[in-house]
Amino acid sequence: MPDPERLEEVRELLQGARTVAVLGASPDPDRPAAYVPAWLHAHGRRILPVNPRCVGQVLHGEPVRATLAELREPVDLVDVFRRPEHLAGHLDDLLAMDPPPGAVWLQQGIRDEAFAARLRAAGLRVVQDRCTMADLMHLGSR
Question: What's the Rg (C-alpha) of the chain?
Answer without folding.
Answer: 14
